[in-house]
Design goal:
The chain has about 180 residues and is mainly beta. It has two domains: about 120 residues, Immunoglobulin-like (Sandwich); about 35 residues, no CATH class. The chain contains two helices and twelve strands, in the order E-E-E-E-E-E-E-E-E-E-E-E-H-H. A hairpin with a 5-residue loop joins strand 5 and strand 6. The longest helix has 10 residues. The radius of gyration is 18 Å and the shape is elongated.
Length: about 180
């Protein structure tokens, strides 16, 4: 199984989706979204489960795209700043014939949840302005932000998702300068 947290690039300034690709086609015991839990952790801001939408909504499938909504999102569906833990419930994911549950820890025994605890190293985090995905908004990110400012689309630096990089986006960027998630 492979999980792409974000858009597949290194940036963590905007995280609007996650794609889970299974090693084979799988079935789900109910709606696909029920198998997934994404939880924001940390010391600042709201902590809790993110509202998720899965595509496709029902199985079988070998790939699921998950998008986010609700109180732990902002700016066009991006997660808010913070670390995120992912759990895939093994009891809700089976082989296509429904006989073998997910082996989430890869030990050869089915029935284990797949889980990831968010860290900077595994990049299961979001930090607006972190264009290079290193876990801090710094001078390198500022150069990229400055190049995008008033110069057209740069989706990763558009905080409120209005299609423009403007003063509002700069204020949000500046508030996070030298900050880690």
């Amino acid at each position: 199984m492979f999980v792409a947290f974000g858009d597949g690039t290194i940036q963590r300034s905007k995280v609007r989706r996650m794609v889970v690709t299974f090693s084979e086609t799988v079935s789900f015991s109910g709606p696909v979204v029920n198998a997934f839990t994404l939880r924001r952790t940390g010391t600042e801001g709201a902590i809790g489960d993110v509202a998720l939408t899965a595509n496709p909504p029902t199985g079988p499938t070998n790939s699921v795209t998950i998008t986010f909504s609700g109180l732990l999102t902002e700016g066009g569906g991006s997660l808010v700043d913070g670390f995120y833990n992912l759990t895939i419930d093994a009891l809700q994911v089976t082989t296509i014939n429904g006989t073998i549950h997910l082996d989430g820890d890869g030990n050869g025994i089915s029935g284990d949840n797949y889980s990831v605890t968010g860290t900077i190293a595994n990049r299961f985090f979001r930090l607006f302005g972190d264009g290079d995905g290193n876990g801090i908004v710094n001078q390198t990110d500022f150069i990229d932000f400055r190049n995008a400012f008033n110069n057209g689309p740069s989706d990763i630096f558009d905080y409120e998702g209005d299609g423009n990089i403007s003063q509002t986006d700069f204020i949000q960027f500046r508030n996070r300068f030298n900050v880690v998630p």
